[in-house]
Amino acid sequence: MKTPVHIAVSGAAGQIGYSLLFRLIGGGLLGDQPITLSLLEVPQSIGVLDGVAMELHDCASPLLSGVTCHSDPEAAFADADLVFLVGARPRGPGMERRDLLEMNADIFSVQGKALNRSAKRSVKVLAVGNPVNTNALIARCNAPDIPPENFAAMTRLDHNRVVGLVAARCGCNPGDVKHAIVWGNHSTTQYPDLQHATVDGIPVLDGVGRDWYEQEFITAVQQRGAEVIRTMGRSSAGSAANAALGHMRDWVLGTPEGEWTSMAVCSDGSYGIEPGLMFSYPVQVRDGAWRIVQNLELDAFSREHLKATEAELLIERDMVRHLIP
Amino acid sequence: MKTPVHIAVSGAAGQIGYSLLFRLIGGGLLGDQPITLSLLEVPQSIGVLDGVAMELHDCASPLLSGVTCHSDPEAAFADADLVFLVGARPRGPGMERRDLLEMNADIFSVQGKALNRSAKRSVKVLAVGNPVNTNALIARCNAPDIPPENFAAMTRLDHNRVVGLVAARCGCNPGDVKHAIVWGNHSTTQYPDLQHATVDGIPVLDGVGRDWYEQEFITAVQQRGAEVIRTMGRSSAGSAANAALGHMRDWVLGTPEGEWTSMAVCSDGSYGIEPGLMFSYPVQVRDGAWRIVQNLELDAFSREHLKATEAELLIERDMVRHLIP
After folding, report:
1. CATH 3.40.50.300 fits A156-318, yes or no
2. Contacting residues of B for A47, CB less than 8 Å apart
3. Structure ipTM
4. Can you tell me the distance from the alpha carbon of B50 to that of B43, in angstroms, rounded to the nearest whole number?
5. Multiple choice CATH, A5-153, 3.40.50.720, 2.30.38.10, 3.90.960.10, 3.40.50.970
């Protein structure tokens, strides 16, 4: 039997965590590969989490070699190969953005330190909980003994939304949409870029027109999460878990030949972005290592959008700088 | 490209439906096979359902060829290949079991008639919503032009719980537990039977002992759903969706060689059960057709338990007889 891959999930009793876990034990991440699950929740949700663990046992999955529940991050992350940091404080009534950032920065600095103490040095850590880029930055900076490239923040839901909206507009299968990009922050400043995207090898912009792209599409992607909440009455969960799965799968198994995806990773200065920020770039993955796609031509419109989302990330970083060692 | 398989799901905005849909579009049912989804909800949940459909688009799954939302069952079931009847009225405060049965009998008689008018004659209909055996009976009896063997009720969650509990007790992988059976009604009268079950070819009862089986295990399985609710504060959803997926997958693709599973299907009188009841039996599936495993030896203990769960199903049937044409 293969050695199980050890996967830790924070916020495991929340809606996104709950959606994710059943897909993990169904082989949705790594196929026919045994896994062990280590689930982390805040102390007041441990009861619910125990129920979730019962349900996981009730799936009788031959791929699930074990489940443990934790309220201590260090115990939860011990020897983890893959970590999904899903849990985060949502924005409450009367909370300023600064409050939200600081509250989550506290959570992610604790979790970064815990990862540093107990996870494998080769661990891959994907932050999913918002504000996700800055949460990932804090975790990474608090785990100095883990290589910075082992941290990422999820913009795959935005990327998938781009692909889905283009496919709907063009009347094609989502699988035929290639080379979409989401740049920057997972927020309303993100820049969903169709200037390199193709459908069946034909530039998307030739089909959908620059007006639709600039005046409707970009806002539609930026506002999509809010529109789902308005329509459904709650936040995206199933599609977020699906995106987390897709991000991690590509990170472990590689992006398809000739394709790329969007991941927020530690900037090396590519495309003029401040080094060290967790910035969403087009990336390709081989042998478990991502590299930022280089030498894409950016026009003035694109450069302006990259600068705007970078500016927001710089402000976020400044707000939590006291938690960055 | 392969022709999409058309799948209808009722109660698609509920917790079980929501868990099921994202696994369907991830290929969890039929693998690399395109599907179209037709989602049914009560009118007051259509807004939520529209949000769910947005989230499905946001997965950009190459397997999803289309999604439609409906409040009319006949439209929802049109040309369906596979149907999951997940939606059902839960038991409210002050409701008697008779009220619950009648209310759901109304829903499932309407849906049976709708299936009869618009679904493919080869449709496979799996009832998941409770009281599931009798709901399936009503749907089947109201769809006289669809072969009765095309209807089933889900006892797979009970079956999986049996396997999971045995695996935990024996310290083995759930995949090593074979030939478990759940007989009868998906209720507290169900009979989880380990008398034919093996682990690695060795009889389970040799390992766990008859006392544990009779005095702890049977009640634990019968009460497992209630225990999950007590622990988690809500009903099983992810594990129920997982079971629905497992049932339908085995029904379409066949049970593994030498194995069987538990499905509530139209009794032909096997094991002395009243013909026509939807009774959970051990079944094997080849080429999309189930057959009840025959000639299993039942001792007095087993026969008594089969009679008890049959008696409950007969009472349920009598309560809704006015809706059985």
Report:
1. no
2. 231-233
3. 0.97
4. 11
5. 3.40.50.720
